[in-house]
């Protein structure tokens, strides 16, 4: 459900947070009413009943809480900042940071929710570029798993790297999203100052006035014909720039907000009563009523032509400097974000929670199975297997039920099978198909997944297990190590190390005392007490004649450097000797 939050809309209209542009009230009224175009009266009524309580709670903010931010700050406790300067040094990195963007998708109340992230764990969100630089994300194409591609009305969907966001359209699985990233940075600007000595000035046909200062507090007004400043700085009597601690921007003068919001709440309760009594024939009828009567509220009759801004600083403020953009430069790049969940099986179902049901959808978003929701918060393990904090579950498509599996452990594998231990960690592992049917009587002491290859260990032997549960023996192997690289898997037979390919064929027989996985087609392996650099077929490229090696070093591109005997010999990722530095 694409909720129209009345409270949120009213707060946006009232401008109770920082804004980038100054808007006129009649435009806000039109925008608010137009947002209801696609809503049914039942949806509007439900949302009104829920959110009117939130509006009542919101009024508690006006019990003098803002004035408490005004305080006297000792001179030694003042915090000073730096003057704004145009700095474009981070723009190149910002434009090249989106090589590995992914998103998590989940479904709730018939909507898609998305949260974006980077696969690079060292980066949690886009680079911060400071004042004077704005960043905009605009989706351009959505590629659904069903094959549908959507381009209309997607540019306003919110790309967020901090929180999951609703409003990404109908609950349908998405494979990837094309996104446009745009940077706008200041090239030239005007500087305008007002102070306690000179509290008024004209700019661009309007007036800027410093109405009041009180210790760390400053209140200014701007004609609503003046564009919003991109930087506002405060100064003490000595002319030192002091850091800002908070701000608010509003079309309403300070002190008037509580009365105006109380008036809004009173009106909303009248509208709520009319909605519940069925006084409106249609959404259009309701919108007509709003357009006529909202104009009677003081907020929408605000005629002072001013925009009101309040600022708080870490020091006593005496003057305010406002910076206005004169010229900007724009840079734009495009990137593609991919879903973290690989939609492989064409018959895969996806769960969506509503207030009273769990609904399982196909790739087209069509409802396939609906189950009463008993406050279960499901996480899909793989295929038709799910879990919550307490149990494992299986979606029974035949009976259209969600069956609780009273088992100790369940692990799903990329080939579609699931390994289950019934009672404790010492139990043998039994393999099941997606429909919760066992593959047969075979049980395994251990299962190891390397890439997309599943190895099973039973009767002191390893086998490769395919999606149907068929086994391919892997002879002369007593251990399989994690990691598939350069189409080679590291294995051992007793104390000796070797390599096999993904089909289980021995490529480099176990003969090495120690070895590491391949990287860039090369690795180091110790044979008869000294290290050799070998290729993926076991050919010796370099005999280092060294007995000690570490992999702790990387070059500037993150590629492996082979160091022997604490740096007495060093080779690059290609196996070339790196000359010693004098």
Features:
WG_beta_rep; Lipocalin; 39 strands; disordered N terminus; single chain; KWG Leptospira repeat protein; about 575 residues; mainly beta; 6 helices; eleven-stranded mixed beta sheet
What does this structure look like?
It holds the Pfam family WG_beta_rep. This is KWG Leptospira repeat protein. It comes from Cellulophaga algicola (strain DSM 14237 / IC166 / ACAM 630). The chain is mainly beta. Among the domains are: 6-82 and 189-326, no CATH class; 407-474; 479-582, Beta Barrel (Lipocalin), CATH 2.40.128. Helix content is 13%, strand content 42%. The protein contains 6 helices and 39 strands. The strands form 8 sheets. Strands 1, 2, 3, 4, 5, 9, 10, 13, 14, 15 and 16 form an 11-stranded mixed sheet that branches. Strands 6-7-8-12-11 form a 5-stranded antiparallel sheet, with no helix packed on it. A 4-stranded antiparallel sheet has the order 17-18-19-20, with no helix packed on it. Strand 25 and strand 26 (453-458) form a beta hairpin. Helix 2 packs antiparallel against helix 6 (283-294) and helix 3 (41-58) runs antiparallel to helix 5. The longest helix is centred in the middle third of the chain and has 20 residues, at 257-276. The chain is flat. Mean pLDDT is 85; it is low at 1-25 and 64-68.
């Amino acid at each position: 459900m694409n909720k129209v939050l009345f409270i949120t809309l009213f707060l946006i209209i009232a401008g109770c947070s920082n804004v980038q542009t100054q808007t006129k009230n009649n435009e806000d009224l039109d925008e608010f009413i137009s947002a209801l175009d696609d809503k049914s009266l039942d949806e509007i009524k439900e949302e009104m009943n829920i959110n009117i309580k939130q509006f009542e709670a919101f009024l508690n903010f006006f019990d003098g809480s803002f004035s408490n931010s005004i305080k006297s700050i000792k001179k030694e406790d003042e915090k000073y900042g730096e003057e704004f300067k145009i700095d474009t040094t981070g723009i190149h990195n910002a434009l090249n940071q989106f090589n590995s963007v992914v998103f998590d998708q989940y479904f709730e109340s018939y909507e898609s929710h998305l949260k974006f992230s980077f696969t690079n764990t060292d980066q949690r969100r886009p680079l911060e570029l400071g004042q004077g630089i704005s960043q905009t994300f605009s989706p351009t194409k959505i590629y659904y798993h069903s094959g549908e591609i959507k381009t209309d009305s997607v540019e306003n969907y919110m790309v967020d790297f901090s929180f999951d966001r609703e409003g990404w359209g109908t609950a349908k699985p998405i494979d990837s999203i094309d996104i446009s990233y745009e940077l706008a940075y200041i090239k030239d600007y005007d500087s305008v100052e007002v102070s306690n000595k000179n509290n008024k000035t004209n700019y661009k046909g309007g007036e800027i006035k410093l109405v009041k200062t009180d210790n760390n507090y400053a209140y200014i007004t701007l004609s609503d014909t003046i564009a919003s400043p991109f930087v506002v700085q405060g100064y003490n009597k000595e002319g030192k720039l002091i850091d800002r601690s908070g701000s608010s921007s509003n079309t309403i003068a300070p002190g008037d907000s509580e009365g105006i919001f109380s008036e809004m709440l009173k009106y909303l309760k009248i509208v709520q009563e009319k909605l519940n009594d069925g006084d409106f024939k249609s959404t259009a009828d309701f919108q007509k009523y709003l357009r006529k009567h909202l104009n009677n509220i003081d907020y929408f009759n605000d005629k002072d032509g001013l925009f009101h801004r309040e600022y708080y600083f870490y020091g006593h403020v005496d003057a305010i400097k406002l910076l206005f953009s004169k010229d900007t430069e724009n840079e734009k790049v495009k990137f593609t974000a991919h879903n973290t969940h690989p939609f492989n099986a064409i018959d895969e179902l996806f769960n969506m929670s509503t207030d009273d049901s769990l609904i399982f959808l196909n790739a087209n978003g069509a409802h396939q199975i609906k189950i009463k929701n008993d406050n279960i918060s499901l996480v899909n393990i793989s295929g038709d297997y799910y879990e919550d904090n307490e149990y494992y579950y299986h979606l029974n498509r035949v009976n259209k039920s969600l069956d609780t599996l009273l088992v100790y452990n369940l692990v799903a594998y990329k080939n579609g099978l699931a390994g289950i231990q019934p009672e404790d960690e010492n139990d043998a592992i039994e393999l099941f198909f997606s429909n919760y049917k066992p593959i047969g009587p075979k049980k395994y002491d251990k299962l190891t997944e390397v890439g997309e290859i599943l190895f099973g260990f039973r009767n002191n032997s390893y086998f490769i297990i395919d999606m149907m549960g068929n086994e391919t023996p892997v002879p002369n192997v007593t251990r399989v190590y994690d990691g598939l690289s350069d189409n080679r898997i590291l294995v051992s037979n007793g104390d000796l190390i070797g390599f096999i390919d993904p089909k289980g064929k021995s490529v480099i027989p176990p003969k090495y005392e120690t070895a590491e996985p391949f990287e860039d087609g090369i690795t180091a392996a110790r044979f008869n007490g000294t290290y050799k650099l070998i290729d993926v077929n076991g050919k010796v490229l370099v005999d280092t004649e060294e007995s000690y090696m570490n992999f702790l070093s990387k070059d500037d591109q993150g590629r492996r450097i082979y160091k022997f005997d604490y740096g007495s010999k060093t080779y690059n990722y290609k196996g070339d000797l790196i000359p010693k530095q004098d």
